[in-house]
Specification:
The protein is of the alpha/beta class and 239 residues long. The protein is 57% helix and 8% strand.
């Protein structure tokens, strides 16, 4: 059996089951009596092995139940529980997205407040030493902060960032130096604390930025809902 970790429909004739068409059976043991009652910790006579061919963890094998009539994994009341769980997951994803967007916005505001002081030679030397301690993901974050997008097969974030350093002026290098220090601190301690300390040092209003990011996310959600409402009458008319 082939499965996908993504929700939604598949192309007609596709043998791959989307995430909403099966229940993944967990291999770990439940940590409480309440967890033990959840369907993902229970096996049934319909349980079978499936391979993930789309989404995350492609190639890995999982035990699943895909029978919609299974009394263990698809009871009548399961729908409302699944909707509640998905709503909670969506809430967590939204909060994480807001936190990430806020963090990048604060990083940019702190960066804008950094003055030009060191010579380019000094800045390059310090930056090369500091960035050698960073992983690819954080180097990619720095590149994105300066509107640099790496291309496929171009050597990854390390090569992209090295090119950015070489063509940057002293002002940009100074901002990169502070950004690098913040991201390194965030990777070793509490990320929120590292950002707030930097915001305090450079007199950046982190609360105002947080409010603005939340408002932008709310506006996007309203636009999506309005688009869905507009699509429904159009489908009825077409029918």
């Amino acid at each position: 059996m082939q499965i996908s970790t993504a929700y939604g429909g598949q192309k007609e004739g596709s043998p791959v089951l989307p995430r909403n068409k099966y229940t993944a059976i967990r291999d770990d043991k439940p940590k409480s009596k309440d967890e033990a009652k959840r369907s993902e910790f229970k096996a049934c006579k319909f349980t079978t092995d499936a391979i993930i061919t789309e989404g995350s963890d492609v190639g890995s094998i999982h035990r699943v139940c895909s029978n919609p009539a299974c009394p263990v994994h698809h009871p009548k009341q399961q729908t409302s529980r699944d909707e509640k769980w998905r709503a909670e997951q969506e809430k967590q994803r939204r909060e994480q997205a807001i936190a990430s967007a806020t963090g990048l916005r604060v990083l940019g505001a702190v960066s804008a407040a950094v003055p030009v002081r060191l010579m380019k030679r000094d800045l390059l030397f310090v930056l090369e030493k500091l960035t050698s301690l960073m992983d690819e993901n954080r180097l990619a974050m720095l590149a994105r902060q300066h509107d640099i997008r790496q291309k496929r097969d171009d050597g990854g974030a390390t090569k992209t960032f090295a090119a950015l350093l070489r063509r940057s002026d002293e002002g940009t290098l100074s901002r990169l130096l502070v950004e690098t220090a913040i991201l390194l601190a965030a990777s070793r301690t509490n990320a929120a604390t590292a950002l707030r300390d930097a915001a305090t040092a450079y007199k950046v209003d982190i609360d105002a930025i947080t409010i603005k990011v939340k408002q932008e996310f709310a506006a996007k959600e309203r636009a999506k809902k309005a688009a869905k409402v507009t699509e429904k009458p159009a489908k009825k008319t077409a029918a």
